[in-house]
C-alpha cells in the first residue's frame, strides 16, 4: 500500500509577514505624492491610509479598485498582496500555537511513520507536528485528543489502548487510510454472516487467492478489510472500528504470520462486528480482561472448529489425522494443527502444517 503523502517541493517559509501597505507606500513615493494627497485621491481619511501602511487595516476589494484607478496598478495585484499577507500572518500565528504542543509528538511513533513513508523526516519539530496532524486528518492536538482521548471514547475502547494511545491511534489510522477509498455496500448483518460461511472455506487457499476474495465478500456486506503490519510497540492481533453507521473496518496486523493465528484474528474481529456496539473501538491484544474480547474469542473458536470436536482433536497422533479432520471440517490443516497445539500445549507438534502467510499488502 502506497502512502498518501505526495512528493513535496521544499521552499523557504519566512517567519515574518510584509503588509501590502509597504508596497503601497513605495508606489506613493514613486509618484512623489504625500500621504495626504494619496488619501484624498482614494477618498480615504489619512488615518485610514496610515493603518493600511502599517498592516493594521486590510485593503478591501473596494479600496483595491480605487487603487487601480489612482495608481494604474491592477486591483487583483493589491487583492493578491492582501491575501498573501493575511495567509502569512495566519501561518505565523499557527506556528506559535503548534510550538506550544511539541511535547505531544513524544507519544506518537513518528520515526516509524517516517520509515513507512507516511511522514517526511523533518528536522523542524513544528513542521513534523504539522504533518503529523495532517496524517491524522485533524487541525490541532486538541482535536486529536477529542477523537482519541475524549472520555466518551475512552469508556468504549479496549483497555489495552490506554498503555500506548499514540502507537495504537497511529496503527488504527493506517488502517483507516488504507480502506478510506474501499467501496462497500451498506452494512448488512445477515449478508455478513453468509459471507463468513464462504470465507471459512477460503482458509484452505493460499494468501494470494483468498485475500482479494476475502476483501470482496466483506465489502459486499459493508465490512472493509485492512491489512497493516503491526506497530513495533503495539504488537496486537486486530481491531474493529465503525467508520460510519454503514461501514465497519476490520484491521488485521499480520502479526504471527501463521495461518491459524491470522484466521482466528479475523473471526475474532468478525465476532465484534456481529455482537458489539457500533461506537466501540475494540483491539485484540490477546488478553481476556474485557468480556467483549472473551466473547469474540469464543465466537472465533466455535466458528472455525466447534468445541464438540475438541476431544477428537486432542488425541490426534499423526499429520494424516490432522489432514483428515481438516477435510472433514472443510478448513485448512494448519487451523486444526493450531487447535491441537492450543488444546495440548504441545506447541512444536505439526508446526510444518501451519503455513506462513506472505503478504504484498503493507502500510
Give the SSE string: HHHHHHHHHHHHEEEHEHHHH
Class inferred from helices and paired strands: alpha+beta
Distance between the termini: 5 Å
According to DSSP, the number of beta strands is: 4
- Low-pLDDT residue intervals, each spanning 5 or more residues: 1-12
Reading side by side through the largest sheet, how are the strands ordered? Answer: 1-3-2-4
Question: What characteristic shape results from the CA principal axes?
Answer: elongated
What's the short story on this structure?
With about 375 residues, the protein is an alpha+beta fold. Helices cover about 55% and strands about 5% of the residues. About 30% of the residues are buried.
Looking at this protein, list some descriptive labels.
363 residues, alpha+beta, four-stranded mixed sheet, 4 strands
Question: Could you explain how this protein is built, in words?
Answer:
A hairpin with a 2-residue loop joins strand 2 and strand 3 (247-252). Residues 1-12 have low confidence and may be disordered. This protein is α+β, with helices and mostly antiparallel strands. The protein is elongated and about 105 Å long. The chain has helices at residues 20-30, 35-42, 46-54, 61-71, 75-99, 110-115, 125-136, 141-148, 151-154, 165-179, 189-202, 207-219, 259-275, 291-304, 310-314, 319-329, 333-344, and strands at 223-227, 238-244, 247-252, 281-284. It is built from 17 helices and four strands. It has a four-stranded mixed β-sheet with strand order 1-3-2-4, with helices on both faces.
Amino acid at each position: 500500500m502506497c502512502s498518501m503523502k505526495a512528493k513535496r517541493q521544499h521552499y523557504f517559509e519566512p517567519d515574518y509577514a510584509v503588509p501590502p501597505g509597504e508596497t503601497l507606500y513605495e508606489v506613493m513615493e514613486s509618484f512623489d505624492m504625500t500621504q495626504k494627497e494619496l488619501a484624498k485621491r482614494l477618498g480615504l481619511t489619512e488615518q485610514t491610509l496610515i493603518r493600511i501602511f502599517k498592516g493594521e487595516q486590510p485593503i478591501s476589494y473596494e479600496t483595491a479598485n480605487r487603487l487601480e484607478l489612482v495608481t494604474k496598478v491592477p486591483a487583483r495585484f493589491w487583492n493578491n498582496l492582501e491575501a498573501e499577507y493575511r495567509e502569512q500572518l495566519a501561518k505565523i500565528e499557527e506556528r506559535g500555537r503548534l510550538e506550544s504542543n511539541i511535547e505531544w509528538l513524544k507519544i506518537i511513533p513518528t520515526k516509524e511513520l517516517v520509515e513507512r513513508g507516511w511522514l517526511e523526516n523533518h528536522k523542524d519539530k513544528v513542521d513534523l507536528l504539522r504533518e503529523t496532524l495532517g496524517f491524522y486528518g485533524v487541525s490541532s492536538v486538541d482535536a486529536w485528543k477529542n477523537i482519541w482521548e475524549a472520555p466518551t471514547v475512552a469508556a468504549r475502547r479496549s483497555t489495552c489502548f490506554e498503555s500506548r494511545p499514540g502507537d495504537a491511534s497511529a496503527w488504527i489510522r493506517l488502517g483507516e487510510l488504507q480502506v478510506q477509498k474501499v467501496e462497500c455496500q451498506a452494512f448488512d448483518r445477515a449478508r455478513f454472516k453468509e459471507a463468513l460461511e464462504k470465507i471459512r472455506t477460503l482458509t484452505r487457499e493460499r494468501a494470494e487467492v483468498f485475500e482479494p476474495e476475502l476483501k470482496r465478500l466483506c465489502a459486499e456486506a459493508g465490512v472493509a478489510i485492512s491489512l497493516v503490519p503491526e506497530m513495533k510497540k503495539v504488537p496486537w492481533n486486530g481491531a474493529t472500528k465503525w467508520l460510519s453507521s454503514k461501514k465497519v473496518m476490520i484491521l488485521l496486523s499480520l502479526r504471527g504470520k501463521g495461518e491459524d493465528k491470522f484466521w482466528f484474528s479475523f473471526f475474532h474481529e468478525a465476532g465484534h462486528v456481529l455482537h458489539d456496539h457500533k461506537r466501540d473501538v475494540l483491539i485484540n491484544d490477546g488478553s481476556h480482561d474485557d468480556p467483549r474480547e472473551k466473547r469474540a474469542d469464543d465466537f472465533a473458536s466455535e466458528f472455525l472448529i466447534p468445541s464438540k470436536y475438541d476431544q477428537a482433536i486432542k488425541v490426534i497422533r499423526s499429520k494424516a489425522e490432522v489432514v483428515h479432520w481438516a477435510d472433514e471440517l472443510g478448513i485448512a490443516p494448519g487451523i486444526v494443527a493450531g487447535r491441537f497445539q492450543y488444546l495440548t500445549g504441545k506447541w512444536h507438534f505439526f508446526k510444518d502444517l501451519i503455513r506462513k502467510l506472505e503478504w504484498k499488502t503493507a502500510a
